[in-house]
């Protein structure tokens, strides 16, 4: 392997490790679940992406093969992490906050999770039902 290839791979691994470290630190140190949510969905996703690119570069510089496994893993990760973060945020909003506690949205708009179409949501209906004491 060439010296340039080793430098590129080392830099990508250091960048990936740095993003992973920042994501883990944010997950532990940030004060509430909504701010804590950004650390793994943003920083750690970029860290894993850099490590996957380093893996692809290793295959290219060492064996001269373009490995598509890492591309598929990165595509799956970049598609699922934001959706997972969105669902966790919406669940947290419904379980922890009342509509009145949220900051006001733009004039003429409404929070999507509390809008007219959300009235049919099973989560909203379950929260409005009185809890039975056992």
Description:
With 134 residues, the protein is mainly α. Helices cover 69% and strands 0% of the residues. The chain is built from five helices and no strands. It is elongated, with a radius of gyration of 21 Å. The chain starts with a helix and ends in a 6-residue tail after the last helix. The mean pLDDT is 80.
Count of DSSP-assigned helices: 5
The end-to-end span amounts to 67 Å
Based on CA atoms alone, the radius of gyration comes out at 21 Å
Given the C-alpha coordinates, what overall shape results? Answer: elongated
Estimated share of beta-strand residues: under 5%
Annotation, overall tally of beta strands: 0
Share in helix: 55-70%
Structural class by sheet pairing and helices: mainly alpha
**Mean pLDDT figure:** 80
- The biggest beta sheet, please? none
Give the SSE string: HHHHH
The poorly predicted ranges are none
């Amino acid at each position: 392997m060439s010296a340039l290839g080793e430098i590129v791979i080392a830099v990508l691994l250091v960048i990936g490790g740095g993003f992973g470290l920042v994501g883990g630190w944010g997950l532990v140190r940030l004060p509430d679940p909504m701010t804590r949510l950004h650390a793994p969905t943003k920083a750690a996703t970029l860290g894993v992406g850099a490590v996957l690119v380093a893996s692809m570069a290793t295959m290219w510089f060492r064996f001269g093969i373009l490995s598509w496994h890492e591309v598929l893993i990165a595509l799956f990760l970049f598609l699922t992490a934001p959706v997972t973060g969105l669902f966790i945020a919406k669940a947290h909003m419904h379980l922890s906050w009342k509509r009145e506690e949220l900051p006001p949205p733009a004039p003429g708009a409404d929070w999507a999770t509390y809008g007219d179409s959300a009235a049919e949501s099973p989560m909203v209906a379950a929260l409005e039902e009185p809890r039975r004491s056992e």
